[in-house]
């Protein structure tokens, strides 16, 4: 089935329609939803002829479509302007797509996504930890072939992989993925050989943070800090629109910030790491200790008991809150994130955890962050993989500042009233 994907080529060539000007315009259209050529020139300070040339290349490569004229814009006499938008499957039958894989403990998620980050098709597969990595990848790629056959439309232009593991300096090989039982697996090489497409690999929680920055609760934020509670506790950062990849191996371990030196032993060899208190298994143990055996999800049961005013549940919540605040304090002090995003089990608890955590972090912060519920839900992994591929193959990193930023708001602020320059505090 992989041959259905193999050979699809990314649109454009370096220096062609996807040169720096075209990438900048593509970002504007992505963020605004739709824009005219005049809007693009005003937003970027590019000349009208430069915009016209770049847009022609984007339309030719099938990345942007013309929606038609709008006679209601009130821009004076003459021909009404033409709106431009991203080429998505609801607009054109052969819209470009990206293949997305999320490799986590026990599951592999595969998806096809459009250039706006929408999910066209998705499948979740099981796999055994310590299984042969190449076999797991091949099974995932076969599933992508089935998704494309089912979709019956679109052309795959790139692939993104989000993996729960540490990458090498090139970002192409998984050095260690303890939860997968993998060591030194050349993931990018394997996917590229199978698909004939460029492949970008990222740490899964870092990719999840990017998804929130692009289309979630982090839109408009300069710095997004993300915490995902599952089998462990992962952290991700997006700074100035770029996923932060710390050090040679991209290892940024929020879960291994020590918050209680006398606390439980951690798998890393130390004691009292945040992960020992805030991973899903740890939160489930906390809930069971407070409530006893419950039916269904213990984390949801803890949330509901806190809402109901149960004293034991509130004490358990406060215990978790103290450890989370201790873990995030240095992140807030050093990076001053606009928004702290809670994902996984922590997202389940957001209704009873978000507001008190925000208050705790505000006590010593010059610029207190918003604490928000992750928007992506169980799509976080594949959406993160998709946005990793989209940034690498189509959009590129955002400019450090928009050329017209001193005189006009960033595109999207006026055209989408739900999008704000800073996420609103939620409770």
UniProtKB/TrEMBL annotation:
<feature type="region of interest" description="Disordered">
    <location>
        <begin position="1"/>
        <end position="22"/>
    </location>
</feature>
<comment type="similarity">
    <text>Belongs to the ROK (NagC/XylR) family.</text>
</comment>
<dbReference type="Pfam" id="PF12802">
    <property type="entry name" value="MarR_2"/>
</dbReference>
<dbReference type="InterPro" id="IPR000600">
    <property type="entry name" value="ROK"/>
</dbReference>
<feature type="region of interest" description="Disordered">
    <location>
        <begin position="398"/>
        <end position="427"/>
    </location>
</feature>
<dbReference type="Pfam" id="PF00480">
    <property type="entry name" value="ROK"/>
</dbReference>
<protein>
    <submittedName>
        <fullName>ROK family protein</fullName>
    </submittedName>
</protein>
<feature type="domain" description="HTH marR-type">
    <location>
        <begin position="21"/>
        <end position="75"/>
    </location>
</feature>
<dbReference type="InterPro" id="IPR036390">
    <property type="entry name" value="WH_DNA-bd_sf"/>
</dbReference>
<dbReference type="InterPro" id="IPR036388">
    <property type="entry name" value="WH-like_DNA-bd_sf"/>
</dbReference>
<dbReference type="InterPro" id="IPR043129">
    <property type="entry name" value="ATPase_NBD"/>
</dbReference>
<feature type="compositionally biased region" description="Low complexity">
    <location>
        <begin position="1"/>
        <end position="12"/>
    </location>
</feature>
<dbReference type="InterPro" id="IPR000835">
    <property type="entry name" value="HTH_MarR-typ"/>
</dbReference>
């Amino acid at each position: 089935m992989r041959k259905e994907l193999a050979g699809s080529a990314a649109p454009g060539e370096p220096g062609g329609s996807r040169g720096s000007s075209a990438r900048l315009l593509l970002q504007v259209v992505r963020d605004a939803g739709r824009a005219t050529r005049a809007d693009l020139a005003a937003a970027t300070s590019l000349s009208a002829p430069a915009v016209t040339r770049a847009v022609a290349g984007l339309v030719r490569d099938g990345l942007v479509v013309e929606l038609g004229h709008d006679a209601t814009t009130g821009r004076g006499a003459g021909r009404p302007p033409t709106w431009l938008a991203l080429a998505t499957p609801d607009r054109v039958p052969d819209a470009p797509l990206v293949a997305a894989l999320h490799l986590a403990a026990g599951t592999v998620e595969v998806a096809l996504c459009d250039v706006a980050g929408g999910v066209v098709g998705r499948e979740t597969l099981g796999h055994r930890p310590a299984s042969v990595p190449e076999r797991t990848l091949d099974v995932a790629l076969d599933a992508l072939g089935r998704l494309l056959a089912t979709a019956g439309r679109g052309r795959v232009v790139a692939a993104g992989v989000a993996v729960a593991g540490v990458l090498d300096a090139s970002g192409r090989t998984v050095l260690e993925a303890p939860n997968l039982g993998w060591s030194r697996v050349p993931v990018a090489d394997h996917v590229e050989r199978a698909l004939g497409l460029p492949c970008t690999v990222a740490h899964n929680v870092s990719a999840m943070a990017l998804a929130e920055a692009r289309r979630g609760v982090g839109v408009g934020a300069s710095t997004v800090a993300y915490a995902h509670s599952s089998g462990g506790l992962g952290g991700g950062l997006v700074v100035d629109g770029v996923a932060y990849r710390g050090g040679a191996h991209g290892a940024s371990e929020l879960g291994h910030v020590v918050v209680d030196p006398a606390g439980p032993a951690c798998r890393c060899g130390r004691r009292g790491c945040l992960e020992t208190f805030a991973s899903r298994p740890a939160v489930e143990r906390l809930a069971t200790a407070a409530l006893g055996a419950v039916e269904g999800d213990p984390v949801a049961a803890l949330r509901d008991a806190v809402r109901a005013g149960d004293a034991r549940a509130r004490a358990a919540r406060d215990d978790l809150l103290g450890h989370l605040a201790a873990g995030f304090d240095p992140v807030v002090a050093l990076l001053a994130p606009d928004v702290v995003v809670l994902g996984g089990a922590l997202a389940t608890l957001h209704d009873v955890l978000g507001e008190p955590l925000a208050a705790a972090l505000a006590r010593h912060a010059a610029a207190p962050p918003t604490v928000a519920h992750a928007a992506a839900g169980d799509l976080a992994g594949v959406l993160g993989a998709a946005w990793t591929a989209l940034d690498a193959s189509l959009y590129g990193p955002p400019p450090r500042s928009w050329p017209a930023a001193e005189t006009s708001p960033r595109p999207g602020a006026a055209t989408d009233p739900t999008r704000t320059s800073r996420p609103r505090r939620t409770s």
